[in-house]
From TrEMBL:
Metal-binding listed as a keyword: no
InterPro entries noted in UniProt: SpoIIM, SpoIIM-like
Keywords: Membrane, Transmembrane, Transmembrane helix
Native species: Orenia marismortui
Protein name, UniProt field: Stage II sporulation protein M
Membrane-traversing stretches: 20-40, 86-106, 118-136, 142-164, 176-200
One Pfam family from the record: SpoIIM
Keyword tRNA processing: no
Length: 213
């Protein structure tokens, strides 16, 4: 119990000391969502028709793919999410995170904002239903995972940079181990999100397919 309280105190101090970085990452995500929402609202009629036709065909193709090659789809989705975890880790240790990470977070927000806004605006209640079944489940893990990964990468970059520029000694091995261990945990969260996307989302979509299409 004492160790748990100590760990909780350390985490609270860590987040409190780096609250500005966390707020920056969250703001990047919100900017992406707003930009995606604005982009969805500026589509022409022809563009909307093309996207709706693509969406209808996409749902049918995904169902057929899951019947024929679900294991292949699982490998692709899992690999994509694990690559994001690796990208966040590399962005931190190479100190390019200050450029790459905001872009990744904004892009993730843009995709979600655009998709959700388009579905709800063009399909109304059907769009809400599709968004809840196809977007929400995996993003309950993906969004916190991306934000936390970006936050930890940024913190590591700034701590590493501060240590290199100052004359104070710092334990690089300890910093790298803690950072890598934390990113491994986040990568596990992204892995679970991939499993949800492959094995839980498609059955949900099939349940509402008759209503949507």
């Amino acid at each position: 119990m004492a160790n748990f309280r100590y760990l909780k105190l350390q985490l609270e101090m860590f987040f409190r000391d780096n609250i500005l970085i966390l707020l920056f990452i969250i703001i990047c995500f919100i900017v992406g969502v707003l930009a995606g929402s604005i982009a969805a609202n500026t589509l022409t009629y022809q563009q909307k028709e093309v996207l709706l036709d693509y969406l209808s065909g996409f749902i049918t193709e995904v169902n057929q793919l899951l019947i024929d090659q679900q294991s292949l789809l699982a490998k692709q989705v899992i690999a994509a999410n694990l690559k994001f975890g690796l990208l966040f880790w590399i962005s931190g240790i190479t100190m390019v995170g200050v450029i790459v990470i905001p872009f990744i977070i904004i892009l993730r927000g843009f995709i979600m904002g655009f998709t959700a806004t388009f579905l709800i605006r063009e399909m109304f209640l059907k769009g809400v239903l599709l968004a809840v079944t196809s977007i929400l489940p995996q993003n309950l893990l993906l969004i916190p995972g991306f934000i936390l990964a970006g936050f930890l990468s940024f913190v590591f970059v700034f701590k590493l940079g501060a240590g290199m520029m100052s004359k104070r000694k710092y334990n690089l091995k300890s910093m790298l181990f803690q950072y890598s261990f934390s990113m491994l945990g986040i990568t596990l969260v992204l892995f679970l999100a991939a499993l949800i996307e492959v094995y839980i989302v498609p059955p949900l979509i099939r349940l509402v397919e008759g209503i949507i299409i």
